[in-house]
Q: What sequence folds into this?
């Protein structure tokens, strides 16, 4: 048996390989993305990017009904998108096992909210597993599939960023057989019409009782007896923090958390003097334990439901001992992420700002257009919200019609932008939509989608024609422009927002990190630079300004030439040009 | 809280902190340690502040290093050294690359890049090693070797045999870059 140092995501992919998964689907989203990227390394598994999480889960549901062991992965907010199939698939149950990975992001390192997706398991009445390290992440893929097949239920495997992106040592095993079970038609089970669903709901409730019995007996929920003065119930990464903070406390470590093992919890509670429930984000376990009449000494009252917990926070809350910090933190300038030098989005936001547009934004690298100095975004809610938000704002304020621009990336347009554009056409909106087509899902680390012409594995695939698609849904004014040309951007924005019918501007240029521009770098002629700082409005990391002169860092500049276009004094020139 | 060795790597997205942490983790495994490593890299390619935490020892539970717990900090950039200095233990060592990279707030003029960062770092920590890893790497012919130059400087202050580091480099670095990286390591070790 060999060992490897794996992230939680790599371990989950390895689990898919070892535990017989045949079909795996996902839409990228931090911190879940690397799961499918790593599954794709196992050629035995049919792995795919789907256009969004709902479609990914629906494809997975089909595979599981067909009899294959199936894995579907997404970030926490992706489960919102996939919730529709999830709740009814809970009623129908599986044939081959299905594990749904929800990678939550406490602390919002790379997310728009920090919802606690354990609540979904309770809401949908399905199984729930919470790994505490990479070894458990891998093992629990197997456990989830076994539970799924044993109780005829989809199972949620919930990780958090510190599991997804932490490397810990994992034992590697040989893979088991991945031949799918036979498919047999069973309409009463899999056709969710009201008559069938009413019968299935009874099955769901009976199933929950059986799953509760399982929760009591499984070794996934284990007691580690030590000093009985303090007893702690915990799950997931927080188990590690508790071990670190209070090595002498008794612990009830829960790996299987829906339904909770309330009898085991009652036994544990009776043995310890002070019972604590320590969990990140919502009081998912604590509320149920209290509702069962078990006396909880402390939990969410002492430990916040906002952001990540740490071992010292836990130690301070439970034994009142602050950690010995000897140095004060120094306040220094923040360093948020920025659009890269040569990024095709920079010119778009510069032009939108110069035209003082009201911009409804979306989720991707281009959300960085909201930050200084570009600061040209008014709203960002969720994947796909940009286009319908502009429509809604036009309904509320018709006088804003010539100011409203929705901005969305190519991958996000595939994900859930298309229906929004249909809404704008259908309901006679007149807003302008800009599709920033950099031919990749960039923010999550460059994943393919139906518009790139390649699959997850990098094989050739049919490519969606975005321009043709926009015309097909009824947009008559569609134009494709080069976002490296500020004049073209300015003209397009002015012309399209002036017209009272829906319009689409597709800005087409590949991500600067994928296709290197073969252009000479730009240098500043200091005798011509008057210190007007116009170039600084681009927010380019390669340009800096001191002593009333701009300077370009040759190590960062890729020669995109936007600064040449904004400089009114011809101070910016490509290398080699006099 | 425990006898583990805690190493914090801080820098700016794109500087190669992740490869450095991989080599560290390889060395830890070769020494027979349990090891955990965590990093936040959701937006790492885009010039943001990046942190990687490596913990090693007989048994590691939490992958997190908290303020006051880092035995070593490798800072790939001056300002990042100052930002994370309070993570260092009283006796801890900071290996600091003297390179400066302006954050956007400095570029736009909303904030100043402090002029005395290295002095502040040196005055508030006992053991500080400052080196110009960027120039050293440039002299070796590839500025991307900054990370391994810094690892060399770290290795000199650690109790792990030098040969272990060289073996870890051989295992981790692509063959065509091995010679460069061995030279970079040596240069950092001697700096």
A:
């Amino acid at each position: 048996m060999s060992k490897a140092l794996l992230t939680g995501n790599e371990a989950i992919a390895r689990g898919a390989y070892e535990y017989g998964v045949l079909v795996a689907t996902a839409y990228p989203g931090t911190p879940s993305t690397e799961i499918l990227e790593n599954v794709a390394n196992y050629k035995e598994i049919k792995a795919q990017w789907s256009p969004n999480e709902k479609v990914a889960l629906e494809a997975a549901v089909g595979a599981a009904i067909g009899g294959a062991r199936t894995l579907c992965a997404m970030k926490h907010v992706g489960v919102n998108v996939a919730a529709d199939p999830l709740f009814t698939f809970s009623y129908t149950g599986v044939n081959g096992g299905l594990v749904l990975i929800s990678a939550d992001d406490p602390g919002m390192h790379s997310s728009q909210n920090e919802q606690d997706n354990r609540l979904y398991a309770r809401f949908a009445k399905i199984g729930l597993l919470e790994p505490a390290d990479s070894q458990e992440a891998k093992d629990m893929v197997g456990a989830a599939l076994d539970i799924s097949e044993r109780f005829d239920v989809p199972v949620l495997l919930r990780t958090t960023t510190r599991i997804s992106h932490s490397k810990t040592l994992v034992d590697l095993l040989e893979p088991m057989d991945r031949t799918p079970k036979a498919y047999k038609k069973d309409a009463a089970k899999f056709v969710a019409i009201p008559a069938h669903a009413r019968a299935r709901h009874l099955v769901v409730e009976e199933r929950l009782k059986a799953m509760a019995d399982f929760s009591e007996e499984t070794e996934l929920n284990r007691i580690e007896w030590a000093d009985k003065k303090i007893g702690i119930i915990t799950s997931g990464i927080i188990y590690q923090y508790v071990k670190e903070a209070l090595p002498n406390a008794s612990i009830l470590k829960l790996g299987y958390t829906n339904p909770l093992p309330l009898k085991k919890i009652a036994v544990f509670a009776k043995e310890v003097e002070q019972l604590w429930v320590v969990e990140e984000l919502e009081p998912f376990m604590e509320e149920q334990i209290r509702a069962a009449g078990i006396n909880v000494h402390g939990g969410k009252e002492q430990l916040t439901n906002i952001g990540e917990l740490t071992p010292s926070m836990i130690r301070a809350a439970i034994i009142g001992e602050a950690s010995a910090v000897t140095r004060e933190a120094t306040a220094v300038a923040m360093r948020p992420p920025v659009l890269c030098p040569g990024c095709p989005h920079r010119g778009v936001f510069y032009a939108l700002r110069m035209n003082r547009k009201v911009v409804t934004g979306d989720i991707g690298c281009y959300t960085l257009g909201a930050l200084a100095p570009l600061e040209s975004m008014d709203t960002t809610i969720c994947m796909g919200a940009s286009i319908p938000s502009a429509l809604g704002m036009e309904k509320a304020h018709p006088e804003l019609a010539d100011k409203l621009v929705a901005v969305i990336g190519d991958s996000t347009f595939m994900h859930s932008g298309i229906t929004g554009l249909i809404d704008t056409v259908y309901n006679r909106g007149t807003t302008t939509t800009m599709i920033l087509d950099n031919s990749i899902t960039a923010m999550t680390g460059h994943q393919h989608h139906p518009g790139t012409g390649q699959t997850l594995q990098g094989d050739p695939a049919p490519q969606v024609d975005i321009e043709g698609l926009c015309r097909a849904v009824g947009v008559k004014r569609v134009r494709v422009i080069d976002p490296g040309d500020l004049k073209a951007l300015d003209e397009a924005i002015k012309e399209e927002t002036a017209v009272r019918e829906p319009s689409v501007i597709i800005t087409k240029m590949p991500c600067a990190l994928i296709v290197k521009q073969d252009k000479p770098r730009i240098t500043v002629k200091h005798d011509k630079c008057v210190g007007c700082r116009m170039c600084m409005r681009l927010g380019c990391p390669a340009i800096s300004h001191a002593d009333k002169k701009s300077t370009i860092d040759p190590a960062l500049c890729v020669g995109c030439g936007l600064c040449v276009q904004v400089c009114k004094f011809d101070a910016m020139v490509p290398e080699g040009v006099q | 809280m425990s006898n583990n060795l805690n190493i914090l790597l801080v820098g700016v997205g794109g500087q190669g902190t992740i490869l450095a942490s991989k080599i560290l983790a390889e060395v830890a495994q070769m020494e027979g340690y349990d090891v955990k490593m965590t990093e936040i890299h959701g937006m790492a390619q885009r010039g943001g502040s990046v942190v990687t935490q490596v913990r090693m020892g007989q048994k590691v539970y939490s992958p997190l290093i908290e303020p006051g717990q880092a035995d070593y900090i490798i800072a790939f950039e001056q300002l990042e050294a100052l930002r994370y200095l309070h993570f260092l233990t009283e006796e801890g060592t900071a290996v600091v690359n003297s390179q400066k990279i302006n954050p956007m707030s400095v570029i736009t003029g909303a904030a100043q890049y402090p002029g005395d960062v290295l002095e502040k770092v040196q005055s508030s920590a006992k053991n500080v090693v400052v080196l110009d890893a960027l120039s050293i790497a440039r002299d070796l012919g590839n500025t991307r070797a900054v990370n391994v130059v810094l690892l060399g400087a770290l290795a000199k202050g650690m109790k792990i045999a030098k040969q272990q580091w060289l073996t870890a480099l051989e295992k981790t670095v692509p063959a065509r870059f091995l010679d460069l990286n061995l030279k970079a390591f040596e240069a950092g070790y001697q700096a």
Remarks:
- The beta strands of chain B are 5-12, 34-39, 49-57, 70-75, 88-97, 127-131.
